[in-house]
């Protein structure tokens, strides 16, 4: 998604400890797709919310299978994400099977592993990116926890968060374009997450994502769906000690960063994968013709 331009203060009170990427399977899976980006670059490719596919013969074979009509169903998509390592746990498989992606994709083929346009120069991320973020955040999306989805777009990932934290928890989607928020609400009303929106545990807000959403803070899990040049300080402030944020950081070259707030308030950051997301930008810039 595209959201308001995010900037963080260079002097944060939190201590940052940069650590190497873990050897967890999602990291290996995505790095296998990406390889190492080459810094001297030709003209930039158009941004998407999917990693840059550089060396991935198996993944391209999988994408070809996904175009077959026999796999044009939500469970088949999840099964293939499981087969290729993007979905690794029962919790993530269950929620992705429960929330049908087709309800959140206004045009195109919803079960192909590709980002899709949702209007206003915004996109819904590719399914394997949703799976990756859910796997990274699943321990912080337990029943009763609070989750924030910045740049909530069509509402798909926010709905997944709500199903995982349950009616005793809270999931908030923040988006700065009212028409997209209205569309997300309509999408969720057709989905399995509709009762959670009715009882108030799932909600969407028209707001500036740079500022998060303090009313429901602190958050156990924060997801940011567009690339910020730096991690926004208000989001760090709203992250609960013991909580985790997943955010793409960078301009042309971007890293999907996993940000953990330790019990003492210090911050640990590791890079999970090289990615290419649409930029976190202002509402006026997003609505301009590309």
UniProtKB/TrEMBL annotation:
Residues 39-49 have a biased composition (Pro residues). It comes from Urochloa decumbens. It comes from the Eukaryota. Belongs to the methyltransferase superfamily. L-isoaspartyl/D-aspartyl protein methyltransferase family. This is Protein-L-isoaspartate O-methyltransferase. The keyword Hydrolase does not apply. NCBIfam families: pimt. One of its GO terms (biological process) is protein repair. Its EC number is 2.1.1.77. It catalyses: [protein]-L-isoaspartate + S-adenosyl-L-methionine = [protein]-L-isoaspartate alpha-methyl ester + S-adenosyl-L-homocysteine. InterPro entries: PCMT, SAM-dependent_MTases_sf. Coiled coil: none annotated. Pfam families: PCMT. Keywords: Methyltransferase, S-adenosyl-L-methionine, Transferase. Residues 33-52 are annotated as: Disordered. Gene3D superfamilies: Vaccinia Virus protein VP39. One of its GO terms (molecular function) is protein-L-isoaspartate (D-aspartate) O-methyltransferase activity. Signal peptide: none annotated. CDD domains: AdoMet_MTases. Transmembrane segments: none annotated. It is an enzyme of class 2 (transferase).
């Amino acid at each position: 998604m595209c959201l308001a331009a995010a900037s963080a203060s260079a002097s944060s009170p939190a201590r940052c400890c940069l650590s190497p990427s873990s050897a967890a399977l999602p990291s290996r899976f995505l790095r296998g797709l990406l390889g190492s980006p080459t810094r001297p670059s030709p003209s930039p490719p158009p941004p998407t919310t999917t990693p840059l596919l550089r060396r991935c013969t198996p993944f391209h074979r999988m994408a070809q299978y996904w175009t077959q009509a026999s796999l044009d169903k939500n469970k088949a998509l999840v099964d293939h994400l499981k087969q290729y390592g993007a979905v690794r746990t029962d919790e993530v498989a269950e929620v992705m099977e429960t929330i049908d992606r087709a309800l959140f994709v206004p045009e195109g083929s919803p079960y192909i592993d590709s980002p899709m346009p949702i209007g206003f120069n915004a996109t819904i991320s590719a399914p394997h990116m949703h799976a990756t973020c859910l796997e990274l955040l699943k321990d912080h999306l337990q029943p009763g926890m609070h989750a924030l989805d910045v740049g909530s777009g069509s509402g798909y990932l926010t709905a997944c968060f709500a199903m995982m934290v349950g009616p005793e928890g809270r999931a908030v989607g923040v988006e700065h374009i009212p028409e997209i928020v209205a569309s997300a609400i309509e999408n969720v009303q057709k989905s399995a997450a509709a009762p959670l929106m009715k009882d108030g545990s799932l909600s969407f807000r028209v707001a500036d994502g740079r500022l998060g959403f303090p009313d429901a803070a602190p958050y156990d899990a924060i997801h940011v769906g567009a690339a910020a040049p730096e991690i926004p300080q208000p989001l760090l402030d709203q992250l609960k000690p013991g909580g985790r944020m997943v955010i793409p950081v960078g301009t042309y070259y971007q890293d999907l960063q996993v940000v953990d707030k330790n019990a003492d308030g210090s911050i640990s950051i590791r890079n999970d994968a090289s990615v290419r997301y649409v930029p976190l930008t202002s509402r006026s810039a997003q609505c301009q013709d590309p």
